[in-house]
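Moderator note: this is an archived Q&A kept for reference. The question asked for a predicted structure of one protein chain; the sequence and the answer are reproduced below.
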Amino acid sequence: MSKPTYSDAEWWQLVKLQQQIAEEQQDALAKVMHLECQESLLCSCAGDFIAHDYKEIAELEDLECREKEESECFEKERKAREEQENLQKQGKDIEYNAQLASMSDDPSLTQMMNSPSFWENFDSAVTGGIPSPTGGNQSSLQ
């Protein structure tokens, strides 16, 4: 069998094709490395986005919690004011009832002593006068 013979032009064409393949492999490898770098960068950015979203969610939850606490505090203050107003009203009612009781037909000794007319006549009673139920003084010496 005879060996095939190649011309110089065919030889140079073969070498040229091998160089083109080597260059294309290098270009492909560079492109793959570039794509891997981009993929890594995108993964990092995605992680940053997720962390940022998580932080915003946590801040919103904190804000909602503070708003709830403020609302509860406001409600407690409102109830305390209402309770104080009710106590003041009850105090006024008790005072009013005491005034009504002091005006009854059969007053107690305390009610009589709280009456200004009782004390108006007191000095004259000590000096010998007798207090009049109408407020005028009658002297026992007359």
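Archived answer notes: The chain is about 80% helix and 5% strand.
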